[in-house]
Design brief:
The complex is a heterodimer.
Chain A (H helix, E strand, L loop, with lengths): L4 E13 L5 E13 L3 E5 L6 H8 L7 E6 L2 E2 L7 E4 L11 H5 L1 H5 L4 H14 L15 H14 L4 E5 L7 H18 L2 E5 L3 H7 L2 E5 L6 E6 L8 H5 L3 H12 L15
Parallel strand pairs in A: 3-8, 3-9, 6-7, 7-8
Antiparallel strand pairs in A: 1-2, 1-4, 4-5, 9-10
Chain B lengths: L1 H32 L9 H14 L2 H32 L1 H16 L6 H8 L4 H24 L3 H9 L4 H38 L5 H10 L3 H29 L12
Helix pairs in contact in B: 2-10, 3-4, 3-6, 3-8, 3-9, 3-10, 5-6, 6-8, 7-8, 8-9, 8-10, 9-10
The chains are: A alpha/beta, B mainly alpha.
Chain lengths: 267, 262
């Protein structure tokens, strides 16, 4: 991990006009930086603007104030340095697995042999080679999500923006996918910003966890995860210290108190 | 798999049995119930009339003319419908501006235009094709328009994040995503095209199965009317089947559905 900053938000504020016509501030003065090869998680209550930050990073939204930088370049719109992956796999049902993996590089007009080479290499890597000719509906949820990850990596982005990539799969598949992601990120030395609701996922996959407040979202805490084996979240889960981190995150998010009867609690 | 194939076998057997029962009822039922043959001619009389029309009334020529009009109306109407569906789907302004007129035209019974078109174009094939175009246009356009409107915005954003151009978004996302609803529209259109053509032929001209229908009625030749109706059903059935065959090739990536296709 070097000190080169790959992804940076400087004083980013994003306002929307809500359906009622009122202005709504989704995120307010958010500044954060992700260094080369670092994996940073973003957690916070729903509606705190996490996904807004991701859309700004990928150039789909222009912030109301402030700016985002990727690889030192100001983000002016969609660009080849970043690629995102969502909870929905967004596989195109009319394309085979191979064609889906090639979707991004095809749009970027890479030569066909190079597209194929990259897609085959990634499928090999994700143990999906034998499914190259299958259509998405023939795959399980976990496999589809792996194909989506392969498609994201095929464009060789320097920064990955991941928006709850595994929240739609069952708990066991999720652990396997998390390990696959962690190993891939480590091996390829990719930088990633991971949005998640899953505190354990944040702790086991990241170098740092940023906690956001309720709307308007601001970064209210930063927790450095000082655990070994960032490339093996399953091993990390066994670390006793994981619980301390999770407990601290729960406190910061006020989860422990939310939904409890206010009076009569034995204090 | 086993249960499925036995369902197909039992279903087919029941279908064939039902056909035999209906045909038998058609042949002997009217006689048993004392219904005169000019109301319901028995099956054998209709078949005799069919042979007579083949020989004397140029049945195949009339059928061919009707089929030609159906094909022309279906193809042109579908192309127009699809074109406007895509244009309106991609241009909210155009849709907003045009939707009241489109709605008005959609509510107006299209077959009522047939006399008007015949006044304009005479007793040619064109007014019949035009009625078919008009009647085919709407289901295709509405299906395409809805399909384009309901493309998952996240898919479009995915393409945009890869720096896709507007043309790439259309050809790689919106167009393929619109194909299943487009084909649903084409299926409806293939049957409606026959309706449009027949109404046109009924109103005027001396060609086509619609003309034979009117002619048979004038002669009080009920068997002739029956033959014309059967031939129209055959024409419509072939058109529908053709759409399904193309659909199965184009949408081969969809999970296997029941083959009945209805």
């Amino acid at each position: 991990m070097s000190d080169v900053v790959r992804l940076e938000y400087r004083n980013v504020t994003m306002r929307f006009v809500a359906a009622s016509g009122k202005a709504l501030t989704a995120v307010e003065r958010v500044s954060l930086a992700v260094r080369d090869g670092e994996v940073v998680s973003l957690i916070g209550p729903s509606g705190c603007g996490k996904s807004t930050l991701l859309n700004i990073g990928s150039g789909l939204y222009t912030p109301s104030e402030g700016e985002a930088f990727v690889d030192g370049e100001r983000v002016e719109g969609p660009n080849a340095h970043v690629a995102f992956m969502l909870q929905k796999d967004l596989l195109l049902p009319w394309r085979t697995v191979l064609e889906n993996v090639m979707f991004g590089v095809e749009i970027q007009r890479l030569a066909l042999p190079e597209r194929r080479r990259r897609a085959h290499a990634l499928l090999e890597n994700f143990n999906l080679a034998e499914f190259a000719g299958h259509y998405p509906h023939q795959l399980s949820g976990g496999m589809r999500q792996r194909v989506a990850l392969a498609r994201t990596l095929a464009v060789d982005p320097s920064v990955l923006l991941l928006d709850e990539p595994f929240s739609a799969v069952d708990a066991q598949t999720r652990m396997v996918l998390q390990r696959g992601l962690a190993q891939t990120l480590k091996r390829a030395g990719k930088t990633a910003l991971l949005i998640t609701h899953d505190l354990l996922e944040a702790v086991t996959l990241s170098d740092r966890v940023l906690v956001m407040s309720r709307r308007p979202g601001r970064v209210i805490d930063e927790i450095r995860i000082e655990l070994p084996q960032r490339d093996d979240p399953i091993a990390r889960r066994r670390e006793p210290r994981v619980n301390e981190y999770v407990a601290r995150l729960m406190d910061r998010l006020d989860i422990s108190h939310a939904g409890q009867p206010a009076a009569g609690a034995s204090a | 798999m086993n249960g499925n194939s036995s369902l197909v076998r039992r279903g087919t057997a029941a279908s064939v049995a039902l056909l035999i029962v209906v045909l038998a009822a058609w042949q002997w039922g009217p006689g048993l119930l004392g219904i005169p043959t000019f109301i319901i001619p028995p099956l054998s009389a209709v078949f005799d009339e069919f042979l007579r029309m083949l020989a004397v009334s140029a049945l195949m020529t009339h059928t061919g003319v009707t089929a030609l009009e159906v094909i022309a109306g279906f193809v042109l109407g579908s192309l127009l419908g699809a074109f406007f569906g895509y244009v309106l789907g991609m241009s909210p302004t155009a849709e907003f501006a045009l939707s009241p007129y489109i709605l008005a035209l959609q509510i107006a019974p299209k077959v009522a235009f047939a006399p008007l078109f015949i006044l304009w174009m005479g007793f040619t094939l064109y007014p019949k094709i035009l009625v078919a175009i008009l009647i085919v246009f709407f289901p295709v356009m509405v299906n395409v328009l809805t399909a384009i409107r309901t493309v998952d915005p996240d898919l479009v954003n995915l393409a945009r994040a890869f720096k896709a151009t507007r043309a790439q978004i259309f050809w790689k996302i919106e167009f393929p995503a619109s194909l299943p609803p487009l084909f649903a529209g084409l299926r409806i259109a293939s049957t409606l095209a026959v309706v449009g053509v027949v109404v046109g032929e009924l109103v005027g001209g001396n060609l086509g199965l619609g003309y034979l229908l009117a002619f048979g009625e004038g002669q009080a030749n009920t068997a002739m009317v029956f033959v014309a109706i059967l031939m129209l059903t055959v024409v419509g059935g072939i058109a529908y089947l053709a759409v399904i065959l193309v659909e199965q090739r184009v949408l081969h990536y969809l999970p296997r559905r029941t083959l009945s296709g209805v």
